[in-house]
Amino acid sequence: EFLDFFLVTAYVPNSGRGLVRLDYRKTWDVDFRAYLSELDIQKPLVLCGDLNVAHQEIDLKNPKGNKKNAGFTPEEREGFSQLLTAGFIDSFRELYPEQTNAYTFWTYM
């Protein structure tokens, strides 16, 4: 915590090979968003870390081949969309909405 803002770093749970932890991840997303929203009421916050999700097709090299892989499932992408709906900003996409070949996600599988 800083005087004028919160700095939150996170390593968000990976849904795992075969999506064995997808249900856990979905619960995590809801709870984490609630936590961030509570902090954001108090003062601005910056979230950084490994969110283990590629939100849009532009955010990874092979979107078609990864649709059912951890990090790019519809559920995980929706969880990230809900962060944006809650008022948080994807700073990279805010500044570079159409930038291609600038990946912050690469599947380990």
From TrEMBL:
SUPFAM superfamilies: DNase I-like
InterPro entries given in the database record: AP_endonuc_1 (IPR004808), Endo/exonu/phosph_ase_sf (IPR036691), Endo/exonuclease/phosphatase (IPR005135)
Named cofactor requirement(s): Mg(2+); Mn(2+)
Keyword entries, A-Z: Cytoplasm, DNA damage, DNA repair, DNA-binding, Endonuclease, Hydrolase, Magnesium, Manganese, Metal-binding, Mitochondrion, Nuclease, Nucleus
PROSITE patterns per the UniProt record, alphabetical: AP_NUCLEASE_F1_4
The enzyme's E.C. designation: 3.1.11.2
GO cellular component: mitochondrion; nucleus
Annotated site (Transition state stabilizer): 52
A single GO molecular function term of this UniProt record: double-stranded DNA 3'-5' DNA exonuclease activity
Record: residues binding Mg(2+): 50, 52
Any one GO BP annotation for this protein: base-excision repair
Reaction equations catalysed: Exonucleolytic cleavage in the 3'- to 5'-direction to yield nucleoside 5'-phosphates
Stretches assigned to the Endonuclease/exonuclease/phosphatase domain: 13-91
Cellular localisation: Nucleus; Cytoplasm; Mitochondrion
Chief subcellular location: nucleus
Keyword match Metal-binding: yes
Cofactor binding annotation: Probably binds two magnesium or manganese ions per subunit.
Keyword Hydrolase carried by entry: yes
Family under the similarity heading: Belongs to the DNA repair enzymes AP/ExoA family.
UniProt cross-references to NCBIfam families, sorted A to Z: xth
Main function: Initiates repair of AP sites in DNA by catalyzing hydrolytic incision of the phosphodiester backbone immediately adjacent to the damage, generating a single-strand break with 5'-deoxyribose phosphate and 3'-hydroxyl ends.
Listed name of the protein: exodeoxyribonuclease III
Organism: Channa striata
